[in-house]
Every structure is written in structure tokens, then in C-alpha cells.
Specification:
Number of helices: 8
Bound molecules: flavin-adenine dinucleotide
CATH class of the largest domain: Alpha Beta
Largest sheet: 6 strands, antiparallel
Length: 302
């Protein structure tokens, strides 16, 4: 980015929120990824609007990141601006037994789950162990233990690429398995309202602990990863067929098909994005040649 462009950006967003050549390995759960040319932590709606308008005016690429828990950033890094919305308000509105919880997109799922537990609010326990932000979870229609974000969303407020704000109700999210309107359209989630219920604190706590225990027992949480690398198949369990193809433990450089859960690729230490991509290609080809099934990526590659 030229110096004059950067000075223009400094006039729009506080300097301390702007990071030049920021290693994306610091912002992804895989701990992989080259530098973002410019990384902006946006703490206000105005910051987000200013960055959108700046990138449009200067014809610059714009990428959005939440907690980086579903992303593989390539080793050569990201040109233009990477914007991390860090809006973190939670507002709880009670109407008899129904409770509307308005959550800004930068709040992490884990933080929200703890807040709901404190307030004895039920309906979110299944999702509590997903390591992302609300923005990322709404976009991906994240889900676990038989529940998806779509089951509890009332409405979402987003910003379009003109900087205008809109609000949509549940059906307009076009939710499907790991899919929503936010994948088709480049909109930025600002805030989502969840419809939840008042519950019993001890029951909520027990459920959350059970789900967390399941994760610890079944997922390779002691190594950096980005969750399930591949989507669930229509009529097969992807991790199971990867395992049946004998690929558990197979490595390329520092990237390995987890020995604990074949659906996860882990970073055993010094994996590059190139290692992960080569391993993904190998696994995809092996599964296709041995079973005839085409497996699809769940993680996003930038
Ligand atoms: C150990 C582990 C376990 C996991 N388990 C699950 C699971 O059980 N279920 C599941 O569904 N997923 C799971 N995941 C994947 C991941 O946590 C989810 O996909 C999560 O919703 C991603 O959120 P994020 O904030 O990290 O998004 P990121 O990875 O940062 O981004 C994902 C996408 O969302 C977009 N995005 C982020 N914020 C916004 C915003 N405010 N507005 C618009 N777009 C935005 C990004 O541009 C990107 O395209 C797991 C990941 C890990 C590492």
C-alpha cells in the first residue's frame, strides 16, 4: 500500500487499530498464514464503514476475519486489508419466559455461552464449545450436537459493501448446512439476536460440561487445527471414510491427518499452508480413487 493511501487510512481509523504486515499465523487457530498487508481491528460500526468505503475507493481487496477458526491463510499472505470486527456488546431482553439476546459479531461463542450460563439462559449449550465468533458462526451456520445457529437466530443486522445497514429475519438468512446468505453475498454481520429461554443453571452447566468433555475426548484439541477440514458427506461420514482409506496419521511436512479424528488436519509444529494444501489434495484424491466419493472442503482458504 502506498504511503499516501496509508495516511488516508490513518485519518479514518485510529492508528493503534491498524497493523502493517501482520502475520496471520497470530490470528488463525491453525497458527498458519503469511502476513496481511494491512490488518484492522474495527471496534466501532464507523470503523467498519470507513474501511469498506476506503477499500472501494482505492479498489483494494477486503477480507473479513472473526476468530480465524475455520480458515487456512496461504503462506504468501493476504493483499489489501484484513478487517476484524471487534464489536463485543451483549444485551439481554427478557419477555416472560422468552429471552432475546442481542450479540455483536465479535463476541466469541465461548464467552457468550459463559454469559448465558451466568444468567441461567438455555438453548445455546450444544454450540458452546465451537471456537469462533458470532459473525463467523452465523455466516457458516455453525452447528454441533444436533443444533445449528439457524435454530435459534431471530434476526441479524449487517452492513453491505456500500456501508448501509440492513436487518433480516431468520428465513432471509437462507440457512443450509454450513451455508447462509453471508457466503453468497459479501455482507458484514454486525449483530445477531437469538431467541432463547430461561432455564436451570445447574442443568445448563452439566450439559455444557458434557459437550466439552466429548470434544476433549474426540477432537485433537492439543494441536492447532481449523476444525473439520471437510464437510459431512450426503450419505457418508467423511472422517470415517478417510480413516477407512488408511489415511489417519498420514503427513505432509508439518501437516497431519489427526490420529484422534481423521476429519481433522492438524499442525504438528511447523506446518505451512502449502503442506496443508498438499495433504488436502492427497486425501481428496485417495478417497476418490478408493471409494468414488468426492469430499468437499469445509475450511476456507484465503
Ligand atoms: C477445534 C475446532 C472445533 C470446531 N468445531 C466446530 C463445530 O463443532 N461446528 C462448526 O460448525 N464449526 C466448528 N469449527 C469451525 C469454526 O469454529 C466455525 O466455522 C466458526 O463458526 C468460525 O468462526 P470464526 O469467527 O472463527 O470465523 P473465521 O474462521 O474467522 O471466518 C470464517 C468465515 O466467516 C467470515 N466472517 C467472520 N466474521 C464475520 C462477520 N462478522 N461478518 C461476515 N463474515 C464474517 C470470514 O470472512 C470467513 O469467510 C471448529 C473449529 C475448531 C478449530
Amino acid at each position: 500500500m502506498t504511503e499516501s493511501c496509508l495516511n488516508e487510512l490513518y485519518n479514518l481509523v485510529d492508528k493503534e487499530k491498524i497493523f502493517i504486515n501482520e502475520p496471520m499465523s497470530r490470528h488463525t487457530s491453525f497458527k498458519i498464514g503469511g502476513p496481511a498487508e494491512v490488518f484492522v481491528k474495527a471496534t466501532t460500526i464507523n470503523d467498519i464503514r470507513n474501511v469498506i468505503q476506503f477499500t472501494r475507493k482505492n479498489n483494494m481487496p477486503l477480507n473479513i476475519i472473526g476468530n480465524g477458526s475455520n480458515l487456512l491463510v496461504k503462506d504468501e499472505g493476504i493483499k489489501g486489508i484484513v478487517l476484524k470486527p471487534q464489536l463485543t456488546q451483549i444485551k439481554i431482553e427478557k419477555e416472560n419466559n422468552d429471552i432475546n439476546v442481542r450479540v455483536e459479531s465479535g463476541v466469541t461463542i465461548g464467552y457468550l455461552a459463559q454469559k448465558l450460563l451466568q444468567e441461567s439462559i438455555t438453548g445455546f449449550e450444544e454450540l458452546s464449545g465451537i471456537p469462533g465468533t458470532i459473525g463467523g458462526a452465523v455466516r457458516m451456520n455453525a452447528g454441533a450436537h444436533g443444533k445449528e445457529i439457524k435454530d435459534i437466530v431471530e434476526k441479524t443486522t449487517y452492513m453491505d459493501m456500500q456501508g448501509d445497514i440492513h436487518t433480516i429475519t431468520n428465513k432471509d438468512h437462507q440457512f443450509q448446512y454450513r451455508n447462509s446468505i453471508f457466503i453468497k453475498e459479501k455482507y458484514i454481520v454486525i449483530e445477531t439476536t437469538f431467541k432463547l429461554k430461561s432455564g436451570n443453571k445447574e442443568t445448563i452447566k452439566t450439559k455444557m460440561e458434557e459437550f466439552l468433555k466429548w470434544r476433549k475426548e474426540n477432537q485433537p484439541l492439543d494441536y492447532p487445527n481449523a476444525g473439520s477440514t471437510f464437510k459431512r458427506g450426503k450419505n457418508f461420514v467423511t472422517a470415517k471414510i478417510i480413516d477407512e482409506c488408511g489415511l489417519k496419521g498420514f503427513s505432509v511436512g508439518g501437516a497431519q491427518v489427526s490420529t484422534k479424528h481423521a476429519g481433522f488436519i492438524i499442525n504438528t509444529g511447523n506446518a505451512t499452508a502449502k503442506d496443508v494444501l498438499s495433504l488436502i489434495d492427497y486425501v481428496t484424491q485417495q478417497v476418490y480413487s478408493k471409494t468414488g466419493e468426492k469430499i468437499e472442503l469445509e475450511i476456507e482458504v484465503i
